Amino acid sequence: MMAGGQPMIEIIGVRKSFGQLEVLKGIDLAVQAGEVVVVIGPSGSGKSTLLRCVNFLEPVNAGRILVDGEMVGLREVDGRLVQDTQERIDHLRSRIGMVFQRFNLFPHMTALGNVIEAPVHVGRVPRRQAEEMGMELLRKVGLADKGNAFPAKLSGGQQQRVAIARALAMRPKVMLFDEATSALDPELVGEVLAVMKDLAQEGMTMLVVTHEMGFAREVADRVAFMDDGRIVETAPPAQFFANPREQRTREFLGKIL
Hints:
single chain; 257 residues; globular
């Protein structure tokens, strides 16, 4: 479900290097409000780095990224771009939910404690209100009975669903998923993908890096194929999987499908 007008995520000419290694080589990509864009490609193609640039976990070397019309991590002063203040970076980052490959839950906190940590300490939401919202989010991800459970007592799939609830707790405008199922046992993948599908159906703007081609076929509005730091091809899933334009895309799909 897409809305027209200004993109919710706009990536313009983005380049990123680590030392001499150029990982992103001029990325242009726009994600409309309510759109789900799935990014696929071989390991080392720059997919995860791109996501980390969107919420300024990695600063870009060139280009710019806008979320809901605001530049991420940079501002213009006297006609040149300089790094934004930490306060503004944190404010914008609070509107960008991110779910990582590793769950990164606080082991000493319950599931509910993990979900409400940011709303209470960053968003200044009163604890009782945060707990009510946190329990609602745990219900949303199918874990209403696990609020008092510590991460060590949860399966990998359950931990990842807590991580999704935690990301949603700050009421983000967009959600980024960086291979959110790749650390899970195969039988647990489906329960996380189901939550992601529900979010998509509710109209959440999502940029998803994944190896799950079934999810890309079923849920994506568009699929983007990355290779060697560039976006090679972008198309709706029916066209992308059935009739890719680029030879490199055909080679990649031929190996994995």
